[in-house]
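User: I've been trying to design a sequence by hand for this structure and keep getting stuck. Would you show me what you'd pick, starting by listing the structure so we're on the same page?

Assistant: Good idea, let's start from the same input. This is the structure you sent:
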């Protein structure tokens, strides 16, 4: 399994909200969602500026995983624990200064399993 090795400046832990829908199938039956004790966890990674080499590596890694399709390993810098995650959203970048780039938005990693 591939590992994301780019250490972010900041990491924020999120719990992604889960909506449950209830719909009437017939007047006598109902379909409801499954209730789970925990919602999906996600990590929001913030990068300031990155070098062209790092940006190329990040883009190649993202492309190799086919965006959010394939899960990969990521080690949280604070607790040194490995998580199996996948990208949640697109990777966008913009030129900041010559040879320095800035990621457009935070990179969100959704936890697949712990």
């Amino acid at each position: 399994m591939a590992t994301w090795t780019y250490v972010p400046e900041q990491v924020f832990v999120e719990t992604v909200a889960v909506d449950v829908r209830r719909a009437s199938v017939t007047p006598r039956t109902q379909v409801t969602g499954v209730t789970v004790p925990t919602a999906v966890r996600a990590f929001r990674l913030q990068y300031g500026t990155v070098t062209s080499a790092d940006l190329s590596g990040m883009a190649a890694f993202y492309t190799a995983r086919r965006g959010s399709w394939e899960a990969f390993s990521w080690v949280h810098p604070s607790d040194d624990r490995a998580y199996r995650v996948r990208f949640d959203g697109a990777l966008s970048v913009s030129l900041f200064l010559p040879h320095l780039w800035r990621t457009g938005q935070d990179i969100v990693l959704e936890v697949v399993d712990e």
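That's my pick for every position. To get oriented when you compare it with your attempt: The first strand starts at residue 3 and ends at 4. The longest helix spans residues 52-64.
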